[in-house]
Amino acid sequence: MSVSSSLSRTRVASWYERRSKRLRRRSPRGADASLAIGLVIIGAMMLAALFAGVLSPADPTRQDIPNALAPPGTDGHLLGTDALGRDILSRLLYAARTDLFVAVGAVLLPLVIGVAIGTIAGYRGGIVDRVVTGVVNVVFAFPVLVLLIALVFILGPGIPTIIVAVTLVSWVSYARLARDLVRRERSLDYVLAARVSGLPTWRILGRHILRNIIAQPVTFAMSDAVAIILFITALGFLGLGVPPPAPDWGTMIADAQPYFTTHWWLAVFPGLAICAAGLGLSLIADGLSQKWNAQ
Amino acid sequence: MTEPLLEVRDLAVTFGSGRGWGGDRGRIHAVRGIDFSVRPGEAFALVGESGSGKSTTAKCVAGLQKPTRGSISFAGSPLDPARNREQRRAIQMVFQDPYSSLNPRMTIGAALVEILRVHRLAGSRAAAVKRAAELLDLVGMPRSALDQRPRAFSGGQRQRLGVARALAVNPSLLVADEPVSALDVSIQASVLLLLKRLQRDLGLTMLFISHDLAVVRQLCDRVAVMADGRIVEEGAVGRVLSEPSADFTRTLLAAATDLPPLDLDLDLDQDHRSPKRRSTR
Hints:
The structure holds 2 protein chains of 2 kinds. Chain A is mainly alpha-helical. In chain A, 77% of the residues lie in helices and 0% in strands. Chain A has one domain (38-294): Orthogonal Bundle (MetI-like fold). Chain B has a domain at 6-83 and 90-98 and 173-280: 3-Layer(aba) Sandwich (Rossmann fold), CATH 3.40.50.300. In chain B, α3 (108-118) packs across α4 (125-138), α4 crosses α5 and α5 (155-167) runs parallel beside α6. Chain B is globular and about 55 Å long. The model of chain B is unreliable at 271-281 (pLDDT under 50). The interface between A and B is medium-sized, with 25 and 38 residues.
């Protein structure tokens, strides 16, 4: 009894000590700053997307041809209207919903699938590893857009198609990364020790190896999210993206193409939104990697 | 003569398939058929230079490496590659590099409790924590180590923690693969002393891998000298070290330093130094 109570007291004390030590020393100040700014940007965008229904001054799909191409500041249209007279601010807010949702889905799925496959391949080695490595190399070599066009034919255009297509292509990056990390990790003594201790394989993988390698895939996922937002934008531009009239940033820019020189606000505001999302995610990725490297 | 606890017969390990270009040149014969046995309660040393196959032999015994040929028997029954939990539990290992042998992201307590729970050696979490604390007592580490991660400790301290982890499951055979060769000489003695005391107090049998005959002289009862995957000489430590019969043993002996015999009553707590000092060297 006395042993366990004194034990728990030292436990609490050392927890505080560790906490304060970590706050003082562990993370470089720059890491905290970029993480905080990134989280604020992305958090604000997510809130805006979530409350798009409340924040939007107008229905994002309602056309008002007489008021088309109104400049920013026009009564009732803070950021102006597009070629069909739709309110640009409302469309931006609703587009955030689409784009952030696709980005999150198209990052999480490949992250989970790729890390799982890569971890198993790296740990098991042998024939499993050779098969996975082979598949990864084939997918790496495959032209992404061709695959996507094929998928759009099969599944029809839309958000699920984009997520499936991105997942099919980008799990391989995570699989290769995780596989290489696990191969290095599995020969380290602490993994051998866990094997000698008789721990089950799933436990060694999940509680020991994964914990030590997960920082890199997660950091990579954050920067990958930036690339995916740009990719969705490119798809929208090519007409393979989110089908109209649902708004997304890429399609908005694509629709603005005839007016680039005469009506700047059509392309500039969605462009700024893409930049902000990219900057926010990059800052988070940067902050996370610095924080983890410091440990 | 007592029944051996560990009996190794004609053990051989070959790396590489030997197929493809180069034929047999692609193969590395790490161990070329060795026999030895370890009696219960004794400390048996396997010495040799790096590349002599002693670490590979240790890994085979610990179940980390599949032998290409030969058999390993433990307590009278053969160990096949897929060992059952009981056989895994009975043979534990202490590793060479104290800086990589503990999971950097787990607290010492979490690591010990996990092992105890997986082997159902503690009925409840609280019982497991209590047992983990006792293990720390056993290796002369403060109980506050339970809530700390490996980076808080020096090499010598980590090696004690590695010993505590190995002892968590009450093994009967402890395989120690160069447990002190990564440590400062001043700290080596305290870890050796710990191993010697544990062997005496717990009745542990020990398979001790080393390249250092001076260390072997301090700790072990019998010794087998390995060179190029074979055992070239075997016998009682006193006999082999005082009148070596193999040329190779003489070479090894010439390279060894003299250390005073271990004093079992020596104070163990002489290596509570800051881990930082290592990096300044």
